Amino acid sequence: MHLYSGQEAVAVGTCNALSGQDRLLFTYRSHGWALARGMRVEALLGELLGREEGCCKGRAGSKNLCDWSMGIFPSSAIVGANLPIANGVALAARRLDEDRVVVTAFGEGATNQGVVHEALAQATIWNLPVVFVCENNLYAELTPASEFRPTAEVVDIAAAAAMPTLVADGMDVEAVEETAKVAVDRARSGGGPTFIEYKTYRFCGHMTGDPQSYRTADEVDQWRQRDPLEILAARLTDDGVGADELDEIRARAHEAVRSAEAAALEMSPPSVDDILAYAPSWMERTR
Amino acid sequence: MTVKRITYAAAINDALRIEMERDPTVFLLGEDIGKPGGIYTVTRGLYDQFGAERVMDTPIAEAGFVGLATGAAAAGLRPVVEIMFVEFMLVAADQIMNQAAKLHFLSGGQITVPLTIRTQQGIVGGGGAQHSQSLESVFASVPGLSIALPYTPADAKGLIATAIRSDEPTLVIEHKGLYFTKGDVPEGEHLVPFGKAAVRRAGDDVTLVGFSRSVEWCLQAAEQLADKHGVSAEVVDLRSIVPLDVPTLVESVGKTGRCVVVQEAPGSASTAGQVASIVTEQCWSELRAPVARVTGLDMPVPYAKTLEDVWRPSSDDVIAAALHAVGEPAASSRRDRTTASPGR
Q1: Which of A87, A97, A136, A236 has the least CB density, counted as fewest CB within 10 Å?
Q2: Shortest CA gap A16–chain B (Å)
Q3: Does pLDDT of B339 surpass 60?
Q4: Catalytic site residue B190?
Q5: From the centroid of its chain, how far is CA B281?
């Protein structure tokens, strides 16, 4: 399991900048993205529990969330793999004369993958309506990403693809939304792709059981001072929203998760009689 | 049905043109397929007819453009990718094997990927170790890809057309040594189903199983076996290895009681081994001899012609294996390929 905690502002701010027909492709760290796009908590938790009512009917699990009806393409457990696929989704939209922008999110660790560079180049060459969202949480799995960065800044890699870049604070949901809108507007108006780096941080380990020996507790605490939820709460307070109202919003969110958890635990697992569902169509004949 | 005698390459070109004319979502992409028409002339003329949008030249970046095709397929188009040499498929292996092959299943049926990948493989002479391989079994080992390897020009046309109309990711692996062979090809729309083998020659004593170019060696061997040894060989052309036409294999071997499986690829972990296992399991009571495999050697394909000729199986090797199966002393086979294993 790869938790999204700490990076919430990136998903929420980006999804706020999109319209309903737009499409999203992200990575195995995508629980937050799915929820931000509108997936019901029950459908997400049902999938994590391997239930038939999960968003992928229990066939995929945490790493490959999908709800195509809301534009969520199956997220990928292979670092960088969804970037060229995002280009294809965008190409199809243009050919079919559909007004869709495609967002693909990935970590800064993905910028070392060859296919990422291929995808950036192709998006420029074919002027595709894609927004490349790099969530720089400082660590490529268990290694500081800076150790493997040949350039000063993450966005420097977009230079080889002659792609415009934007950099913003990934802990500030309003800054994210404002930045995303620039890129989304450019894509929607035929201006082509944009590469965005959001500076963010994951509060949990890379995956369940990560000993996190590569960073100090102090560092995590310092970043927690910049918790995107608290930054937003402080801003709402400044804007005159009362403490009671904020507490009520928090309570509603907790209750939504608690009741979804209870509902998901009641869901049935897939029937073993359906083992061949969604398998290659000829399996039924040859089994 | 009108037929025309054309090459394997022209037959594929015909299928692509017809499918593009009948379905505006079909488009081609690959290296040098547009204005240049492809290095084996397969896409010649299509750029002029359909334009750059539907016959897209791509950068030399196989993972990137196979990924792009996968996304386009999921989002409503029917891409037909050309991968210039089967070896380049390995550069895009993640996109083919981890992504395209699994998306329908992973999404619980929400996504379909009507993606066709055409490529070519095999030895024509002097290609060397990285331009001569036969890699069908690598891709057959990952569920989610249907795989056809046409031998005749008519099948090349019909299997490509079926692949393009399929809603599942499909590989059609052509053989570079077959592109300029000719055969009768039906004009107009022509579809050949996956999973239906063709009996190319009927016989009673031994079943020779081939696909792609190895059918040629099976047919040559069958003729010699009849003319010089009085052995009646049946030749089964698998046409597709995923799905595999098990009923036709069982029917043929049930009749002959003997089976020789022939492929150009090395024998280890291969289609020949898979066919031999299935035939052994399902025809055990009818079998009168062990199922034999005639394959390429388990080593890189050499460049020098003297070595390349020995590496590749030939009709003589098929004849030797067939004679061994029927209990006659083997004719002058250059080496025993039927026990190919790393330790031999």
Answers
A1: A97
A2: 23
A3: no
A4: no
A5: 24
Strands A130-136 and B3-7, by their bridges, are unpaired
Out of A68, A84, A278, name the one closest to residue B68 (CB).
A84
**Chain B contacts in chain A segment 22-41 (CB below 8 A):** 23, 25
Contact (CB<8Å) B246/A279: no
Contact criterion met (CB below 8 Å) for A197 and A166: yes
Question: Does the beta carbon of B244 lie under 8 angstroms from any beta carbon of chain A?
Answer: yes
Which residue among the candidates B104, B131, B175, B324 is catalytic per the annotation? Answer: B131
How many Cα neighbours within 13 Å face the side chain of B46? Answer: 32
Selecting from B65, B74, B144 the residue whose C-beta is nearest the C-beta of A73 gives: B74
| Three-state SS at A9 | helix
Q: How far is CA A232 from the centre of its chain?
A: 19
Q: Give the list of residues 6+ apart from residue B89 with CB closer than 8 angstroms, or none.
A: B62, B83, B96, B117, B119, B135, B139
Is A53 an 8 Å CB contact of chain B? no
**pLDDT exceeds cutoff 60 at B342:** no
Transcribe A159-223 into DSSP letters. Answer: GGGT--EEEEETT-HHHHHHHHHHHHHHHHTT---EEEEEE---SS-SSTT---TTS-HHHHHHH
Structure ipTM: 0.95
Cβ-based contacts of B63 with chain A (< 8 Å): 84, 114-115, 118
Does residue B10 surpass a pLDDT of 90? yes
Q: Which helix (H) or strand (E) holds A140?
A: strand A139-140
Are B238 and B272 in contact by the 8 Å Cβ rule? The answer is no
Cβ pair A122:B61 closer than 8 A: yes
Q: Do A68 and B111 touch (CB under 8 A)?
A: yes
Annotate B1-15 with b (16+ C-beta within 10 A) or e (fewer). Answer: eeeeebbbbbbbbbb
pLDDT in tens, A74-106: 999 999 999 999 999 999 999 999 999 999 999
CB contact under 8 A, A88 and B63: no
- Name the E strands within chain B: 3-7, 26-30, 55-57, 78-83, 116-121, 146-148, 170-175, 182-186, 198-201, 206-210, 233-237, 240-242, 259-266, 292-296
Backbone phi and psi for residue A197, each to the nearest 5 degrees, phi listed first: -110, 125
DSSP state, residue B121? E
Nearest C-alpha neighbor of A105 from the set A119, A95, A92: A119
Check: CB of residue B263 under 8 Å from CB of residue B134.
Answer: yes
pLDDT of residue B322: 98
The beta-carbon neighbor of B108 closest among A57, A118, A125 is A57
Q: Is B103 on the interface with A (CB under 8 A)?
A: yes
Pairing outcome for strands A143-144 and A139-140: antiparallel
pTM, to two decimals: 0.95
Report chain B residues whose CB lies below 8 A from the CB of A277.
109
pLDDT tens profile A199-255 = 999 999 999 889 899 999 999 999 999 999 999 999 999 999 999 999 999 999 999
Q: Among candidates A78, A173, A93, A172, which has minimal Cα distance to A128?
A: A93
The average pLDDT across B6-31 equals 98
Nearest residue of chain B to residue A115 (CA atoms): B64
Nearest to A88 among B59, B69, B110 (CB): B69
